[in-house]
Amino acid sequence: MKRWVKWTVFAVAFAVILLFGIESVPISDRAIVIGLAVDREEDAYMVSAQILMASSGQDQSTSSGVVSVEYPTLSGALNEISKQTGMLVTLSHCNLVILGPSVLDGYAQKTLDYLSRNAYLSENALLVTSESSAREVLSAKGAYAQTTAFFMQQPLISDGQYQDIVYRTIKEYRADFSTFNGANRLPVVRPVPAEPPMESGGQGGGGEDPAYVFDLSQTAILIKEQYVFTANRTETAGLNYAEPEIQRGGLYLEGDAGEAIELYIAKGGCKREYDADALTATFDISLRIILKEIISPEGEVRPVATCSLSASEDQRLKQTIADSVLQIFNRAAEAGADVFELYEGFYADDPKGFPAKAGDYLTKARLNVNVELKYE
């Protein structure tokens, strides 16, 4: 396109904007959703939104609240929230979605597809599930923050590559949903009662409502939209050890003489290799470890600068890491969930021959786990 044509088009577009203007909604008239919880109750959705409301006054203050609406459709539920609040609901700033157990059973993909396509919810929003209803979790009062959605997502953001916390976005969930087996994982949020923070003067935080912290150490394992089982902390760590990158993590080891040894994962990751003919996968895990603390059975704290792990302690630590990977692999394989996407790995190794002989590949597959530790 010639330059004069481009400038003409630009000038016309600019004139139209000046003539007709652009419709805008003041921020004080927007219901800014920062956390969304979705449940199913019989033939209706229960949609709960934690809304951040900005004041139009000079103080520029903000407040938040949770609004819940039951409606047969998601679009209708969002419209009802707009009616109740008298504001335009916007999900563009929503970074946390909680899917209740009732939604995971047949409605998760449909829910996420609608919210992403029609409600402008970012596919990078964090996705979690809950043991109880999602509404109850979103409505729980955080012990150290007024806004539950912000408080809940903080450990996911800061510890998202920690070795015992699963980090999942809507985009990642939908990608795994489309794999051959459809095995998926979601962190399970569990509110845990906590003492409220101390106020000035040494008194405990007041208020009649109980305060909570949120445990994220368990993981729901799914096949498509069918819940399979909940992985414990050790199995969750096994899932993360097999990821390409781990940025942080904590390890505990009992020493040869009964010492309590605490270690820290500074960085690490896993490389995978597949042999389709032998139906064997090999995971090579490499971790950089920092020795943090050693306490003898008598309670004596030993200076770590002068200590190192013995050969037997090093071997036990490697075995502990490998066992956690094998534990979640064996449990998931028995349940029919290909949590490590072995099908895709075998297919990449032999795209022509493997599909014809895949059969019940998951029950026949073998997993070898090698662990290398480097101490700093």
Automatic annotation (TrEMBL):
<dbReference type="Pfam" id="PF25198">
    <property type="entry name" value="Spore_GerAC_N"/>
</dbReference>
<keyword id="KW-0732">Signal</keyword>
<feature type="domain" description="Spore germination GerAC-like C-terminal">
    <location>
        <begin position="218"/>
        <end position="374"/>
    </location>
</feature>
<dbReference type="InterPro" id="IPR008844">
    <property type="entry name" value="Spore_GerAC-like"/>
</dbReference>
<keyword id="KW-0309">Germination</keyword>
<keyword id="KW-0472">Membrane</keyword>
<dbReference type="GO" id="GO:0016020">
    <property type="term" value="C:membrane"/>
</dbReference>
<protein>
    <recommendedName>
        <fullName>Germination protein, Ger(X)C family</fullName>
    </recommendedName>
</protein>
<dbReference type="InterPro" id="IPR046953">
    <property type="entry name" value="Spore_GerAC-like_C"/>
</dbReference>
<dbReference type="InterPro" id="IPR057336">
    <property type="entry name" value="GerAC_N"/>
</dbReference>
<keyword id="KW-0564">Palmitate</keyword>
<dbReference type="GO" id="GO:0009847">
    <property type="term" value="P:spore germination"/>
</dbReference>
<dbReference type="InterPro" id="IPR038501">
    <property type="entry name" value="Spore_GerAC_C_sf"/>
</dbReference>
<feature type="domain" description="Spore germination protein N-terminal">
    <location>
        <begin position="24"/>
        <end position="189"/>
    </location>
</feature>
<comment type="similarity">
    <text>Belongs to the GerABKC lipoprotein family.</text>
</comment>
<keyword id="KW-0449">Lipoprotein</keyword>
<dbReference type="Pfam" id="PF05504">
    <property type="entry name" value="Spore_GerAC"/>
</dbReference>
